[in-house]
Amino acid sequence: FHLKKKFRRQHVDAKMTEKLCNTEISNRNIYKIDNSCKETNTFILSIPAKVKSIRRGDGSYDENSGMTYSTATFRIIKCKLKHQGARKPSCQYEGRLLTNRIIVVKCEGKLPVHFDRDLLPSESNDGEQL
Fold first, then answer.
1. How far is residue 79's CA from residue 97's CA, in Å, rounded to a whole number?
2. 50 is a domain residue
3. Cβ neighbours for 60, distance < 8 A, ≥ 6 positions apart
4. How does pLDDT run across 78-119, given as a tens digit for each residue?
5. What is the per-residue burial (b if ≥16 Cβ within 10 Å, else e) of 66-95?
6. How far apart are CA 125 and CA 91, in angstroms?
7. Which of 25, 47, 79, 114 is the most buried (most CB within 10 A)?
8. CA–CA distances in Å: residue 86 to residues 11, 33, 52, 80, 91
9. Count of domains in the chain?
10. Domain Ribonuclease A-domain: where (predicted)?
């Protein structure tokens, strides 16, 4: 089983750094359908197998939202658009490394297909302390 190609292309890269946001988003052709820039794109600093395991026992499914929360924490790079409303090819991003993050994904079958958001462990469970 492989991670869904689009999810992997847009969100999984063990070697990603804060400085590579512009290059990688352009190289991977990560844009909205109308060719405007995504406001934020998050890269999970991990190998695909670890991300996949969120749906294979290393995650908890929330029936209310339909999302799955990772039980392990991840390091991520969050790329934020510098200029709202920018369009391809003028997407300029600022990257930040965030650590100790729970990732929240929507899955189809046993594979993540959508990155919803990231949380600090203290923020999961709707703000209740773990």
1. 9
2. yes
3. 68, 69, 71
4. 999 999 999 998 999 999 999 999 999 999 888 899 999 999
5. ebbbbeeebebbbbebeeeeeeeeebebeb
6. 34
7. 79
8. 21, 14, 32, 12, 6
9. 1
10. 5-119
Q: Catalytic pick from 11, 52, 78, 101?
A: 11
Residue 73 lies in domain? 5-119
The verdict on whether 2 is a catalytic residue reads no
CATH code (residue 12)? 3.10.130.10
Flag whether 124 is in a domain.
no
Phi/psi for 83 (5° steps) reads -125, 110
Confidence band, pLDDT 50/70/90 cuts, at residue 127? very low
Question: Annotated catalytic residue: which of 22, 114, 116, 125?
Answer: 114
Q: In terms of DSSP bridges, do strands 59-62 and 40-44 run parallel, antiparallel, or are they unpaired?
A: unpaired
Which amino acid, residue 103? I
Active site residue 83: no
Residue that has been written with the tokens 């988003």 in this structure: 25
Task: Tell me the helix, strand and coil percentages in the chain, rounded to 5.
Answer: 20, 40, 40
